[in-house]
Amino acid sequence: MDLEAFLDEAAPHIARWHSLRGEVVSPQSLESALAPLTTALPPCLESLELSLYWDDPMSQNAISLFGGAPAPSTLNDIYLYRIPLAFEPLRLSGLGSLGLKQVESISTPELLQILRGSPQLETLTLAKNPKLVAIGSQPSTMQPIELPKLVSLVFEWIDHGGTNSIISSIRTPNRRQLYIRDTIDRDSAWSVLFTPSIRHILHTNTPTADPPPSVIEVEIYEEDDCAIRFGGVVLTLLVYREDRVLRTLAWLVDRERPRIREKFSSKFQEMFKGSRREPSGLRQRLRRQLNPPLLKSKSPGRPFRSVGINQPCEMPPIL
Fold first, then answer.
1. Which of 154-158, 201-205, 247-251, 287-291 has the lowest mean pLDDT?
2. Coil vs helix vs strand at 2
């Protein structure tokens, strides 16, 4: 049964709904498929998961749910894929999980407002949301958004400035996972994303065991594609130039491991001075130049190498 037919039959029982998961296969039927949700409020709804599967580019007006009323206070989990909702009337708060993928209607200020009202949030997943862009510096009187329960953050192909604005606005002392996937195709992109204002995200009260906090792992997949893992942080980057990988490594170790930073600033910067791109150049250079005690190879049987940069001594955590 398609979603529209199901909702037509279930609409008389909307007061008893606790969870709704549905898929729409055509943008032409999106508003009609969601008609019961646009006019009535399910007072007990706890989980909402809606997806639009359509390959062609879509241009949809934002859809207002619940007759323009705020979302029910029971709503805890939201996942949207290509569903352009009008977020401001919903006044979303008290969420436990939020996933937004290719949602064209969500803006950075709207997202931050949702986060500020959801201190119990545990997971946040954002992917290809075009309006999540930089919003500039926040007023000095604006308090950071405290998210003590948040353990997992995912940013995939979000505007560099948007990712930076979101991370710089929140505090996640118990973060276990941070995953960022993006393209670093120019120096300005690197400088916009990896700024001092988001370094606090590296500190966590619940560090992961793999890799241990004393190790940075760099995995080279292809000529320009690599993953950097450090303390529950995973950066999967298309970098286009080797020196940007080194800048990212130096950014990771900047404050809590200054001895390693000194070795980066001499050995690593010299390593890429005047370098030219070549097939598997990043992999070859890392393997050739990162030697003990800095280099720790792992999984030599895999199609790429992992290099771990070992912490030479205990240093104080990020303040």
1. 287-291
2. coil
